[in-house]
Amino acid sequence: xxxxxxxxxxxxxxxxxxxxxxxxxxYNGNGNGHSRKHSKACVYCPGNEHLTSPAVxxxxxxxxxxQMLSDVEGNYVKDWSVRVFPSTDPAVSTASNTSFGDGPxxxxxxxxxxxxxxxxxxxxxKLSNMSIDQWSNALLVIQDRVKxxxxxxxxxxxxxxxxxxxxxxxxxxxxHIDLVTFPTIPxxxxxxxxxxxxxxxxNGVCPVCNIVRMEANGPxxxxxxxNFIAICPWAPTxxxxxxxxxxxxxxxxxxVTQMEISDLAMMLRxxxxxxxxxxxxxxxxxxxxxxxxxxxNASIHWHIEVYPQISNWAGFERAFGVYMNNVSPELAAQELxxxxxxxxxxxxxVV
Length: 351
Fold this sequence. Notes:
With 351 residues, the protein is an alpha+beta fold. Helix content is 26%, strand content 22%. The protein has helices spanning 132-149, 187-203, 207-215, 258-278, 315-320, 329-347, and strands at residues 2-6, 13-17, 57-62, 65-69, 80-86, 107-109, 114-118, 157-164, 176-182, 221-224, 228-231, 242-246, 284-289, 303-308. An eleven-stranded antiparallel beta sheet has the order 4-3-5-7-9-8-13-14-12-11-10, sandwiched between helices. It has a three-stranded antiparallel beta sheet with strand order 2-1-6, with no helix packed on it.
């Protein structure tokens, strides 16, 4: 069990375990929601479905068609392509019984859903080398689950994120993506939405649409497809950080079309593959920045941000919110571009 605590003064929130949650099974804090205790068997691999919570959704191919099925009363779906189930060690819970606190000691229940999306059945298939078709399947399943989550009460935001690499501390190395919901809009998204709203009022145009136009064919562009552009942002927090941005102005992931899903799968395969080729299979985090889909005033041009973890923050970054980056985004783009384009060519069968 966990609770959501707010800082004394600023809009910074922390999920902490309640007294009965302080155990070896407490949420490990690295964004994966997996227990600190592990068996030798990978619980995400086919054949080990009984080691996880029952799947609420499993994509399978039957008679040349993909179907969305689910586990029923101990009967586990076999031969799945993508599998979704509740985390066995969630960051948030719908069973939270934490009371509310006000004033400088504000707290509320860490209420929400936490699902794990196993992106591929093959343990050796990484996010950086998954086929375009497999990425498309994973994205379609995520889109379906996000739609369902927004139909649930007390869900005001659905976060989508992933970690990659052998140095992910305690997480399972089998390729997966996490979905965690919040009863309120996360501060980073709210701040981004407010900044976008101010820019719209000042300039009459979506600031991210303007970024797409400004960065196209420029020194920070990495790769461009029909529907997406990948860029190293002007002021990156992390070395080799890059964003994948839709060229069409859209705020939500559920409004992405089937054609755009296929294009996004191609972009993710190419850029993540190029990143790992350039940085020798470096650890990275990936997060979808999306608008909340229930009625509110917070709206952003959705995009994906990828944060390579090749350096550690020191006291300067942790204390003051100013970040030291020893690789300029122009140099990062220059190094990433050829690798990403080679991965793109390989993925589409040109080489």
